[in-house]
Amino acid sequence: VFLFDLEFGCSSAHILPELSHGQSFHLALARADCVYFLGGHLLSSDSRPPRLFCLHVELLQGSPLISCESLNTGMSISSAIITRTGPTHRYIILGGYKLDSQKRLECSTVTLDEKGIHIDHLEPPTWIPDIIHSRTWFGGSAGEGSILLGVPT
Question: By C-alpha distance, which of 48, 47, 51 is closest to 37?
Answer without folding.
Answer: 51
